Amino acid sequence: MARVSVDASLAHLDRPFDYLVPESLDTAVTTGSRVRVRFSGRLVDGIVLERVVSSAHVGTLAPIARSVSPEPVLTAEVARLARAVADRCAGTLADVLRLAIPPRHARVEAQPSPAPVAPPARPDPSGWASYDAGGLLLTALTDGRSPRAAWAALPGPTWPDRIAEVVQATLAGGRGAVVVVPDRRDLDRVDAALTSALGSGAHVRLSADLGPAERYRRWLAVLRGSVRVVVGTRAAAFAPVADLGLVVLWDDGDDVLAEPRAPYCHTRDVLLLRAELAGAAALLGGFSRTAEVAQLVDAGWARPLVAPRSVVRAAAPRVRPTGDDADLARDPGARSARLPTLAWRAAKDALDAGAPVLIQVPRRGYVPALACARCRETARCPACAGPLGQGSGAPAAVPTCRWCGRLAGDWLCPSCDGRALRAAVVGARRTAEELGRAFPGIAVRTSGRDEVLASVPAGPALVVTTPGAEPVAEGGYGAVVLLDAWALLTRADLRAGEETLRRWFAAAALARPAASGGQVVVAADGSLPAVQALLRWDPVWHADRELADRVALGFPPATRVASVSGVPAAVAELIAATELPDGTQALGPVALADGRERCLLRTTRRSGAALAVALAAAQAVRSARKAPDPVRVELDPLVLL
DNA sequence: TAAAATGCATGT
DNA sequence: CATGCATTTTAC
Fold first, then answer.
1. Which of A318, A319, A501, A639 is the most buried (most CB within 10 A)?
2. CA dihedral angle for residue A518, residue A520, residue A526, residue A529, rounded to 10 degrees
3. Is residue A631 within 8 Å of A566, Cβ to Cβ?
4. How many whole angstroms separate alpha carbon A173 and alpha carbon A141?
């Protein structure tokens, strides 16, 4: 007999089903292998959770229809993790397994995986020596112990080397490691650092852009124990590394780490559960720190891993705010580029010293938002009320709706009858154009969604970037200018401060240390907490403050919140069917787009698991009843307001 | 989508 | 109140 998880994401079918194993399939149907089974008439995919000798099922068991392959693609460790993730997110095991196990590729599976490489020597500890407990961390890992650390990385481009060193220490201690980063550029950096520390063949990189055959080939090499180290994006968190000793997550505040498919789990939660269940070490690192990581430190789950203030000061650039009413530089070119005097001076100093300058602009495009020149009201499309923008600087450029694409050449302000438009927001492309005029003869390069630069050479140049696309500069930037801070800080989002600071630190960390002339100018008022944190280079202070705010407001991570969304009747029905833990508060509903609405259910951290279980049970009741309108349940959603 | 369970009309 | 056929429900 075999206990099988069938590939059906209906909530009430989220349990194992027992099947008879025909004699002919006895050797092929292994624990963790893929099978096909007859389930309510049709043939469906399934995965063998375990082989058993008896079943609690009353009634006759159906036989397994066929074995897909004997490859045990679900390891015991990942099976436990997937169950825990499903429970945590009020989702189904089948949904998690779809994220955790890549599609099979028969030809690749028939080929052998390469022989494992010998474990490396201990890492060079000098890089981690800058951190208070850095040496202890490496020793603990080489000794096979499992420390958990919240790492505030020193500014500069060497953080991937630190990750390579903790991985090397883990390997030297006889265990494997999983490293997850938000995007391809970080993946390239950590991949390169691992290659230089471990040579080739000791690790694999896993990302969605590989293609099915190569992806499965690498994943199988991990499953079969040929490779003990994985670095990758989101889905790599589930990689079946044997004897897992360490999980690493870089920049956990990046929103791409939230899974967009059911059950909407966050990579941070997956890796924390995994470290806990597997008894592995955990390293959560970044230039900034999220309230979630602050909470882990506060709760004693993770220890802070920071450098002494003197080391931080020596590594950080000099950071200055322009103040609220920034005076624009007198230089006519700088005036047209809206450069505050301080920023213009910092850029000029750096360029004169032969160093590149990074300019971070929060919005891409040319003029992403226009406003009435007379009354300053935001200009909207007469047809669909979308924002009007300007695509290029051509003299005849007609304002265009950014939602429906309609041209709005004959725009008339509905509140004051004005006809003239002005730029409400200036995008990266126009900023680049204006900077070219402000600094004649200096090369202007742009890095953004269309073309992301990984690095720029040393030498004077202006590099205009949108957040998240900052190239590393050879030798570091002489100056980093952070423009239009208000556009980031005034967003109506609980995480606006945290997210702004994350983007600022990511750019500012690429500047040279102050002693080498590195300067950062932020176009914001120095009294704002996020600006204060940047000036003092103190991500921990800001995260602790952010956590205190969340405690006061009763939002995650101080509490647990479930978002329940769908058509109004379905949402109401689901909540009515949920046995809410004591003290659970319902907020809303608020209307969403296309007639759906959303309710938030808030409870204590302690009752979070119970709330997830209760919601899963309510989903099961609805799916068993074949309720037509699905309800989306998401725990601790990123977007709360 | 196959079997089992249930519903329902019809005939005695 | 059996019987046969249609529809709904279950899911091993």
1. A501
2. -100
3. yes
4. 6
Contact yes or no for A120/A196 (Cβ under 8 A): no
Phi-psi region at A459: left, alpha or beta (left = phi > 0; alpha = psi -120 to 50): left
Helix, strand, coil tally for chain A in percent (to 5): 35, 25, 40
**Alpha-carbon radius of gyration of chain A:** 27
- Phi/psi zone of residue A156: left (φ > 0), alpha (ψ -120 to 50 degrees), beta? left
Beta carbon of A59 within 7 Å of strand B?
no
Q: Exposed, middle or buried by CB within 10 Å (0-12, 13-18, 19+), for A91?
A: buried
Contact A455, A473 (CB under 8 A): yes
Distance, CA of A483 to C1' of B12, in Å? 92
Residue A495: C-alpha distances to residues A364, A547, A564 (Å): 21, 11, 20
Q: Write out the DSSP string of A228-262.
A: -EEEESGGGGG---TTEEEEEEE-TT-GGGB-SST
A 294-333 residues, CB < 7 A, strand B: none
**Cβ atoms of residues A175 and A243 within 8 Å:** yes
Count of Cβ atoms closer than 10 Å to residue A76 Cβ:
13
Which one-letter DSSP state was computed for residue A208?
A: G
Nucleotide nearest to A55 (CA to C1'): C12
Residue type for position A345: R
Position A16: which residue type? Answer: P
Q: What is the pLDDT of residue A386?
A: 73
- Alpha-carbon gap, residue A15 to A3, rounded angstroms: 10
Q: Protein footprint on strand C: which nucleotides are under 7 Å from a CB?
A: 9-12
- Residue A196 CA to residue A575 CA, distance in Å, equals 53
Cα dist from A54 to A5, A16, A61, whole Å: 17, 13, 11
* Residue labelled with tokens 């498919």: A261
- Quote the DSSP letter at residue A128: G
Size (chain A), residues: 641
Q: What is the pLDDT of residue A336?
A: 63
Report, as ranges of residue numbers, the positions in chain A whose pLDDT lies below 70. 324-326, 329-337, 392-396, 428, 431-433, 487-488, 490-492
Judge contact between A586 and A599, C-beta under 8 A: yes
DSSP assignment letter at A593? G
The DSSP annotation for A18-75 comes to EEB--GGGTTT--TT-EEEEEETTEEEEEEEEEE-S-----SPPPBEEEEEES---S-
Q: What ranges make up the beta strands (E) of A500-614?
A: 519-522, 559-566, 585-591, 597-604
Nucleotide C3 C1' to residue A627 CA (A): 34
Separation of alpha carbons A429 and A350, rounded Å? 22
DSSP-based three-state secondary structure for A106: helix
Select from A332, A303, A345 the least CA-distant residue to A140.
A303
